[in-house]
Amino acid sequence: MTSTAHGVRARARIEVTAAIKEEARRQLAAEGATKLSLRAVARELGMASSALYRYFPSRDDLLTALITDAYDSLGEAAEAAHDAVADAGPAERWVAVCEAVRDWALGHPHEYTLIYGSPVPGYNAPRTTVPAASRVGLLLVGIVRDAHRGLGLAKPPLPAELRPEAERMAVELAPDLPPEVVTALVAAWAQLYGLVGFELFGQFNRIVEEREAFFRHAVAQLAHGVGLVYPQKGRAAKGAAS
Amino acid sequence: MTSTAHGVRARARIEVTAAIKEEARRQLAAEGATKLSLRAVARELGMASSALYRYFPSRDDLLTALITDAYDSLGEAAEAAHDAVADAGPAERWVAVCEAVRDWALGHPHEYTLIYGSPVPGYNAPRTTVPAASRVGLLLVGIVRDAHRGLGLAKPPLPAELRPEAERMAVELAPDLPPEVVTALVAAWAQLYGLVGFELFGQFNRIVEEREAFFRHAVAQLAHGVGLVYPQKGRAAKGAAS
DNA sequence: CTCGACACAAGAGCAGTGCTCACTTTCGCG
DNA sequence: CGCGAAAGTGAGCACTGCTCTTGTGTCGAG
Fold first, then answer.
1. Which residues of A, range 174-203, sit inside 8 Å of B by Cβ?
2. Which of A226, A229, A227, A230 is nearest to A216 (CA)?
3. Which nucleotide, over all strands, has the C1' atom closest to the CA of B9?
């Protein structure tokens, strides 16, 4: 269909599309999602605003593209951080991934806001974004799985009323892990983004000062809650990421 | 100065101000913050859009007023839920407050988004909102304090590197509580909003089905992490708050 | 090599926004 | 009772997303 076989026309198209996304990302990073203006992008690119609609049917479609890219960028950063400590213990890897998420969020506040802040009202993320969005989650599941196969996991408590749901989630997310662990993992996943969001959105402002150390401790506790046993050696001080 | 003593003029002013906020809140609830339009509010109130600026110098100021109100509404809901179980154990009260936060968020999604979602970009919440914003936090601190004075608390772990910061936070937030507990409390506070936000913003969509039970369990674990010992009786099923 | 088709681009225009400003009306208070 | 300030008005500016009509540049088949 519109493969490279069609030649020059198609090449130009994907190049312009990329240029639009690039400029849009620039504006997003500079001013935030609400200030992102098609007309401004077109202006900066030296083209008529109407021409932009040949590439993105609407502003929301452009935003969707940026969202997918942001998820991928975050996922990549997390995976890179994980690979850098791939042979460390599960708890270390867990903390490394969490810190990567935090670092990425602090480095790309508006992109983070776009994907984990309030969804732009009146806008519903299409299913397209799901795979890109799952990368960090999969990473965490992988770490826990390794621990499960290796040193083993502590089983978090699970009330009886929640067991059916826990088993359902386990089947869907990680059939090889105990339902208790999967449940705790999902909760920890959400809680991680609570920690990051509160710091990013200023809720910690006159409250938490030593942000990095606080975060590191909190996510270590999260790991503990999932069943990963956190080694109590005083290792946290050295080798800061960022 | 502009007290009620000044009579009719001032009375009319606060009435119109209230009407504007009311209509604005209506639009906020219906369409979200970005769709809230001064002109639409004025239109609905049958006045010229420019007249609105006699009451709110800018759109942001109107939003700020709504934000403060939202914080107060949330705080009130949480306090009411707490008072309803005031003589229960600390863990029950903790869970009740958390559920109240969740219920309020699900019932007022756009208002919740306004205060705990991404702050409207380019907009910085003025210090005015701080007291209203603290109400839920104070409630949680109070519960933990009661437990501390009563049955006692388990001391959460605290790495040595974080102790100075923990002591600083304790001095500022709750000097009568152990620093370990205060630290865990701040983390739990952020994590609570991670749980609520993920559910509200659809991140749990094809993942968690039994939202209420899952949430209840998660926040109970949070309480545990703070040092509140969660009674293992099977009490969770009956007497739902909502 | 020519010519038609079609992707691409441009510009005007519509309806909407926040906000300002000069102006008129109204009404409470000295 | 009359003055002055507060309240309200409407036009207007610069901006937005988006549509529609009107060109153009270019590719590929005849």
1. 183-184, 186-187, 189-195, 197-199, 201-203
2. A230
3. C28
